[in-house]
Design brief:
- The complex is a heterodimer.
- Chain A folds into 3 domains: 4-47 and 247-327 and 483-528, FAD/NAD(P)-binding domain (3-Layer(bba) Sandwich), CATH 3.50.50; 123-237, no CATH class; 329-461, Alpha-Beta Complex (Polyamine Oxidase, Chain A, domain 2).
- Chain A is built from 18 helices and 19 strands.
- Chain A is α/β, with parallel strands linked by helices.
- Chain B has a domain at 12-94 and 180-261: Probable tRNA modification gtpase trme, domain 1 (Gyrase A, domain 2, 2-Layer Sandwich).
- Chain B is built from 9 helices and 21 strands.
- In chain B, the strands form 4 sheets. A 6-stranded antiparallel β-barrel of chain B has the order 16-19-18-17-20-21. Chain B has a 6-stranded mixed β-sheet with strand order 12-13-14-11-5-15, sandwiched between helices.
- The longest helix of chain B has 11 residues, at 243-253.
- Classes of the chains: A alpha/beta, B alpha+beta.
- The structure holds flavin-adenine dinucleotide.
């Protein structure tokens, strides 16, 4: 029997981690799933790759900050070889003078460091975190389930809304007003009201802007902070790094699917979603003309590509075409992965802090400058960075004594004035120089490196515009608006088509949640078709 | 609208239900002082503007669909009479016109409108509605099929953005050609005979909804047996540059039979025909501030224009549900008793508010106040009769009375 004659219960387009999570849940429920991936490897932006022979790094995403243990348990990923190397990584805001800050400042020593920089901030920190956690607590239940669709099935919607209103009321007048001011505010406004130390402000502002097309002064960035907090809380509140690098996660998911009745097929780019004359999904066609049939299709691509390119707007209502036309996917970033002959020495850093998530962001002004530079298609004078040492967590990532460094650079223009080809080296040099301010020996220890410019990230990971999330996570593109009425998981424009990527609720980052929720929708609502 | 015909023996005091004897002064005495908002100023001239202006004796103009058009030329009474007894020529160039062409024009239109476009032959016209996802009307108009792959859609309001969003993914072009095309409505009992003399037998014999190419003074004209002014009427579609020639020629050659008619007479005639007007009798889904103010075709009594079986189109799912559920609102024609022109808006069923009249007028031929009103469907089945709270404009004071009203068949005349 030829392979395209095989009947599947469901087809998943794209083997990014969300597509794989969705497929794995379906496979676990006994469905025959086929995952089709355009690239030669699974994982999307979540892959482990060689920088040079024997030196491995997480090529794209490099940190699990919101990966829910619940999914690990549901899918028994440990059985399929998935293991975390670290589960409790701290954030280290690097300081030029060695007075680094560790966040969250939970231990006495960490608070002492904060006090050392600013006694006032040390006092403000606890109440601030409590407050923002309360706000995140309000959002969290909305991210844990599929959002209700207005109109039909409004009962659940009503319950959810009432529960939200009740919790909102319970907050008390002062908190409510504060939240009202908070949501549309910029993170800089919020932080300037609360703290004085530029470093802690920058460190907190990083979580509000990383991966977003926003600087600390952008209105709405405070909301991004709350959103990320809620995502982190769902995941247990800790950052971690998997053994084998980020790529180990999709690999384990793919193994699970392969061991079930499902199948993951790489080098299979989907060109079209097939629709029957009565408006139901029938399957897909690949660019090489191969057809696969299934009554259910889940797409882990962003809504725009899914609906406009693969489905075709002829199947959409004009309201939907308009909505998708204005879907914003910005916030390009770059990656630099380095192979080092030894551990880069940073003055004042304690041993365990080498396993942390380092931030190079001295103050919010530098961050805002980097954002503004990117908006103008220019390079930042002082690049902003998030750094992880994969080899610190995973000794297999480098030969003994050697190390790898993964540098994520937000606020890098997709289209660079003068062109990326001409300015790659200049950019790399700027970044290495900037790291050397903190780790002066890095230049001597450097043996190899790879740079991924935004266009390369787009090409290699299939991330449109080199953005993180398949669509900005601003208020108008989250929750019910991700991606919008009649376009979300459970009520697509054609029957049997679901979105399961980070372009749908509850959004981006390595969370697997869009995939999990989409699978739940298929299994609950769509069970009649499977 | 001026008081053009009052039954001489009519005295409002005969109504024993006079609500107020000593009423406050008329509110509309101060109407002229109303401020005009900047976005309300619409003064685009039609291609016939200067020619219409020379025969417009009253200098009463109306802003209509973004254009300036005469309200009356000489008097409402004479223009209305022409429409009923002889023939009238009206400038309808203010209509919005879209040209839709290309290999997938038909597929696009199938998706856009609720009616089956595949069944529309070349040189035919059909009234169409287009709806949003919720089944609410976004716009309505008349669709002409000019060629196998070319259509013209004439509407009121601006819907280019909606058409573009719908056309996404179809191999067809949508162009706004409003400014390049004039439209003259020829209507009235003598219209057919005028058409025969000027354009020939083929035009005169056109059945309703059909269209044909003809020529006048070497100008190509497309003539359709369409229009909202009466059963005996044509619409003459002509290049904007040629429009004045046709206009002048028709009026000159048939001056005994044919008069120009302004918007006031046309609107009154439309009301008598019982035809609801977009933007007046109901709001388009895209401009209704309150979504409740938008209507489905079923609520307009235009269910016959929805073909749920023809395949997918915008709003089909919602319309199927709406049909099953039944219309909450119904657009109806009302005839209000009492032989004097009255102003009214609210419609009551017994003492309960049932809905609102959106177009009202005094029909001399029926000698009655008539209206188009949107009322709650459930009130149609009620035993109690309808009534309106009418105001009779007097010199300074208003007289008020409750007048019985009854649902009338459309067209009323
Ligand atoms: C450089 C970078 C760094 C990041 N760092 C982090 C981080 O440290 N921590 C974190 O939590 N998040 C990070 N993110 C965000 C995170 O990686 C994304 O949110 C996440 O990968 C999205 O996963 P996804 O499965 O929804 O979509 P994707 O990973 O985009 O998966 C989509 C898949 O579909 C495939 N595809 C595309 N078109 C077709 C087609 N026509 N047919 C078949 N297959 C197709 C693509 O090749 C891809 O594999 C980072 C993102 C980037 C770009």
């Amino acid at each position: 029997m030829m392979e395209h004659d095989l009947a599947y219960d469901a087809i998943v387009i794209g083997a990014g981690h969300n597509g794989l999570v969705a497929a794995a849940y379906l496979a676990e429920a006994g469905k025959r799933v086929l995952v089709l991936e355009a690239g030669s490897d699974v994982g999307g932006a979540a892959v482990t790759a060689e920088i040079a022979p024997d030196y491995m790094s997480s090529a794209g995403a490099h940190l699990l900050y919101a990966w829910p243990q619940r999914i690990e348990k549901d899918l028994k990923l440990a059985k399929h070889g998935f293991e975390m190397a670290s589960r409790d990584m701290v954030t280290v805001a690097l300081d030029k003078d060695g007075k680094h800050l560790v966040l969250p400042a939970s231990s006495r020593a960490d608070i002492a460091r904060l006090k050392d920089r600013s006694p006032r901030d040390a006092e403000a920190y606890g109440p601030f975190m409590k407050r923002v956690q309360r706000y995140a607590g309000l959002l969290q239940p909305l991210l844990e389930k599929g959002l209700p669709v207005p109109g039909e099935g409004a009962k659940q919607a009503a319950t959810d809304a009432l529960s939200l209103i009740w919790r909102f009321e319970k907050m008390g007048e002062e908190d409510r007003q504060e939240l009202g001011r908070f949501l549309p505010a910029s993170m800089a406004q919020v932080l300037d009201r609360t703290f004085e130390d530029p470093l802690i402000k920058a460190a907190l502002a990083m979580d509000a802007t990383l991966g977003h097309h926003m600087g600390p002064k952008s209105p709405g960035s405070a909301y991004q902070y709350i959103y990320r907090l809620a995502q982190q809380n769902i995941a247990g509140g800790k950052m971690g790094y998997p053994a084998g690098g980020i790529g180990a996660l999709p690999q384990a998911l793919a193994r699970l699917i392969g061991e079930s009745e499902g199948r993951v097929r790489t080098n299979s780019q989907v060109r079209h979603i097939l629709v029957s004359p009565d408006g139901r999904t029938e399957g897909v066609v690949l660019t090489d003309g191969t057809k696969f049939h299934a009554p259910i299709v889940l797409s882990s691509l962003d809504p725009r590509r899914t609906y406009l390119d693969l489905l075709g707007s002829a199947h959409l209502a004009p309201e939907q075409t308009r909505r998708l036309g204005s879907w914003r996917m910005q916030g390009a970033c770059a990656k630099i992965n380095l192979a080092l002959e030894g551990l880069p020495i940073i003055e004042g850093l304690e041993e365990r802090e080498y396993g942390g998530r380092w931030l190079i962001a001295p103050d919010m002004t530098a961050m805002e400058r980097a954002f503004v530079a990117a908006k103008r298609n220019e390079l930042a004078v002082d690049p902003i960075m998030e750094i992880v040492l994969p080899s610190y967590h995973d000794p297999r990532a480098a030969p003994p004594g050697h190390h790898t460094m993964s540098i994520l650079l937000p606020h890098v223009p997709y289209e660079l004035e003068g062109g990326w080809e001409a300015r790659r080296d200049e950019f790399t040099k700027r970044v290495v120089d900037a790291v050397a301010v903190y780790a002066p020996d890095i230049k001597i220890k450097l043996i190899a490196g790879e740079i991924l410019t935004p266009p390369e990230i787009e090409r290699r990971f299939g991330a449109p515009g080199a953005g993180w999330h398949q669509g900005d996570m601003s208020l108008d593109q989250t929750l019910l608006f991700r991606p919008g009425y009649g376009l979300s998981h459970d009520e697509g424009p054609v029957e049997g088509l679901y979105l399961c990527g980070s372009g749908t609720h509850p959004g981006g980052g390595l969370t697997g949640e869009p995939g999990r929720l989409a699978a739940a929708h298929v299994l609950e609502g769509g069970s009649a078709h499977v | 609208m001026s008081n053009i015909l009052v039954r001489p023996d009519f005295e409002p005091e005969h109504h024993n239900d006079v609500l107020e004897k000593h009423a406050p002064p008329r509110a509309d005495l101060f109407e002229a002082a109303r401020d005009i908002l900047p976005f309300e100023i619409q003064a685009e001239p039609t291609c016939l503007h200067s020619f219409a202006a020379t025969v417009c004796r009253t200098n009463e103009w109306a802003a209509w669909n973004g254009y300036t058009t005469p309200q009356t030329y000489v008097s409402l009474a004479s223009e209305y009479e022409a429409l009923h007894a002889q023939a009238a020529l009206a400038d309808m160039s203010w209509l919005t016109k879209y040209r839709i062409s290309g290999p997938q024009a038909e597929e696009f239109l199938q998706k856009l409108v609720t009616r089956n476009v595949a069944a529309l032959p070349v040189h035919r016209a059909a009234r169409v509605f287009f709806c949003d996802m919720g089944g609410k009307i976004v716009g309505e108009g008349v669709l002409f099929r000019l060629e196998e792959e070319e259509y013209r859609l004439t509407v009121e309001g601006n819907h280019l953005d909606w058409l573009d969003a719908t056309a996404e993914g179809f191999n067809c072009a949508v162009e706004d050609i409003s400014g390049t095309l004039g439209c003259l409505a020829l209507s009235g009992p003598q219209a057919v005979s005028i058409a025969r003399q000027r354009f020939g037998d083929a035009v005169a014999a056109l059945p309703a909804g059909h269209a044909v190419w003809a020529e006048l003074h070497a100008a190509p004209v497309y003539i359709s047996r369409t229009g909202s002014l009466g059963r005996e009427g044509f619409e003459i579609w002509v290049d904007a540059e040629d429009a004045p020639v046709i206009w002048g020629s028709l009026l000159r050659h048939h001056k005994d039979l044919l008069r120009p008619a302004g918007l006031a007479a046309c609107e009154l005639r439309r009301l008598e025909r019982g035809i609801a007007r977009f933007g007046r009798d109901y709001f388009g889904a895209e401009c209704a501030v309150d979504p409740e103010a938008a209507r489905t075709p079923y609520e307009l009594g235009a269910g016959a224009f929805v073909d749920l079986e023809k395949g997918p189109f915008n709003g089909r799912a919602a319309l199927a549900k709406a049909k099953e559920k039944g219309a909450e609102w119904s657009l109806v024609a009302l005839e209000v008793s009492g032989g004097e022109q009255a102003n009214f808006a609210a419609v009551y069923c017994g003492d309960d508010r049932a809905g609102s009249a959106t177009s009202t007028g005094w029909s001399p031929v029926l000698c009655a106040n008539i209206a188009l009103a949107t009322i709650r469907t459930e009130t149609l089945a009620a035993d109690e009769g309808f009534n309106v709270h009418a105001e009779f404009p007097g010199e300074v004071a208003v007289r008020r009375a409750r007048l019985p009203a009854k649902i009338a068949r459309r067209p009323l005349f």
